[in-house]
Amino acid sequence: MCISGWRHTAAFFLLLALSTNTFSNNVQAKEPLTLAVHPYLPVKEIITRFTPLANYLGKEIGRPVSVRVGSDYQEHIAYIGKDKADIAFKGPAPYVTMVANYGKKPILARLEIRGQPVFQGHFIIRRYSPLKTLADLKGKRFAFGDRDSTMSHLVPQYMLEKAGVTLNKLADHKFLGSHNNVVLAVLSGDFDAGAVKDEVFDKFAPQGLRSLASTPFFSEHLFVTRSSLPPNTIQAIRAAMVKLKDTPEGREILKAVNPKTTALVPAADTDYDNLRQVLKALGQLGE
């Protein structure tokens, strides 16, 4: 083959390789992203709450986004920790646990509820229960949610122990999997008390609940992303989340996630340091 012919052949294969890479990159750029959510509520309700946000993010970044609900908290933690989720919504304690086990992930934003990026939980009892303090829970039946739940297990157990009510001083305790299950168990009389986050307490209090005690405030639920997502995509998602508060449509999307949500705001890993101390005290994290 003459030199001229060789050059034309080489140029052809170079263009073919470049076009193939471009096609591959374009396909990858359009592949759906996953928004993973822990099962803190019934699956159908979670899908309803987060689908508007997923659709909005998909339009903003030019890639479809679908909602995925974890089978339980542990599975959700591992799914995100192993970089299988593109975007993930996490409770504070599962986030701290994930960082301890798998390392940090890029933080996108955290919830701001009623203008504050922090939340608390409540020890719930029936409205006419004679219980007055946490110490009164000795010898009583207590309902927790998931073992990895911030406000339905970990913080409440810490507070119970500080009040002298270790688990072996309860007549019985069980992990019922979700905040809603705790509410139903207390209202039905199967348990004397339980623990849920403030959003759930506010929703069900009119049905016959009252708060025996509230927890301190801790940094709110947050969104993270996988470490391998392209930096420009991470920045685009972060910017899209932060500007939700600026339009009526965006504010409706925020309210779908939580009726009291006023914004998604920047967050840092250090915002969760006080919760780390609680988990260490419970022996949940290494020293």
Structure report:
There is one protein chain. The protein is an alpha/beta fold and 287 residues long. Helices cover 45% and strands 21% of the residues. The protein has ten helices and 13 strands. A six-stranded mixed beta sheet has the order 2-1-3-12-4-13, with helices on both faces. Helix 2 (43-61) links the parallel strand 1 (33-37) and strand 2 (65-69). Helix 2 runs antiparallel to helix 9 and helix 3 (73-81) crosses helix 4 (92-102). The termini are far apart. Residues 16-28 have low confidence and may be disordered.
Number of strands: 13
Spell the H/E element sequence. HEHEHEHEEEEHEHEHEEEHHEH
Helix content: 40-55%
The share of residues in extended strands comes to 15-25%
**In angstroms, what is the radius of gyration?**
23 Å
Contiguous runs where pLDDT drops below 50 for at least 5 residues: 16-28
Kindly state the mean pLDDT as a whole number? 90
Q: Biggest β-sheet, characterized?
A: 6 strands, mixed
Order of strands in the sheet with most strands: 2-1-3-12-4-13
Shape: globular
**What class, by secondary structure content?**
alpha/beta
Number of helices: 10
Amino- and carboxy-terminal Cα gap: 70 Å
